[in-house]
User: Fold this.
Amino acid sequence: MLSNILTVFTKELTDSLRDRRTIFGALFYPLLGPVLMVVLISVIVRVSSDQSEQNLELPVIGAEHAPNLIAFLEQNRVNVLPGPADPEAQVQAGDLDVVIVIPAGFGDDLAAGRPATVQVIFDDSRQSASVPVGRTFDLLNGYSRQIGVLRLVARGVSPVVLEAIAIEEIDLATPQSQAALFINILPYFMIFSIFIGGTGVTIDATAGERERGTLEPLVINPVARWELVAGKLGVTLVFTLQAVLETLLGFGLMINFLPLAELPVQLSLSVESLAGIFLISLPMMVLAAALQFIIATFTRSFREAQNYLSLLPLIPALPGMFLAFVPFKPELWTMLIPTFGQQLLINQFMRGEAVAPINALVASAVTLGTGAALVVVAVRLFSREQVLFSK
Assistant:
């Protein structure tokens, strides 16, 4: 029995290694995640560094109404520019990031001790303007605090009276958890590698062999159908395993060895975390391989199998995408959802948090059980004579 499975496995592996497209896809696709993260980090670092270190170009309408405020801004690396005629249109069009409007009564309100109004025009939906907008608000708040302190001192009142509560910040965030933007995309790319890494060999071993006419001579050999399925699934698992290892290695090298000192947060990924992510991904590999085999066997042609399997990663990856916007706490009930529990655990490993052993065991058992059930379905589907013919 083991000899038959090994023979089928060797045959399928040899055929796959001869296909250059399969080898190229297996080596290239797993690197998409690490490469995209490098590009993302490079862009963020460059944009943030440029906008933070350079003088702020700040258009001001009504600058003549607040000469002291303008002087304060200029002392804090702000180049005050004349304001446009239609600031709302300029900001909405993206031509300007932020515009300040100082009404004519600003000086009178300030002199009378009343709150003086300053309008800040910006578009909160434009992420590229977040740095200059944030700097503008920080400067205005700083000037407001400075005027408030001077008013209290002029009246013989200590500014300490304004501090009714002394707040001590105790931040429990780990260096990894602070980098939530980068952390939350890793489960998605892990799912992508697991559910796309072995698709090439799976399609070739099912729909591909049926189109080439080599499947019928294969099944007439004295080998049980389940042994054929086991051998073919073994090759799929090998390529899936390679894709996962390549993805983890790429992220590990990128996070731990690239010069990321200019990032506002510190990224790190220990060997223990990488090992934990790999182990927690193993049950998903079995599920993915079986599901790919079922879909590829049921399709009518090689092209149809490609179309269906190219969309397959989107289904299990959707929960991982929601994690970036709607955080879920890793509770026991969430571990009962195949692949979703693993994505929560991968997120914990990336954040440097302790993973509850019971959660890991339940998530692995549920996903592995689902994968085993799908393997049984694949064997029964492959045992039908219709599998030899295009439907």
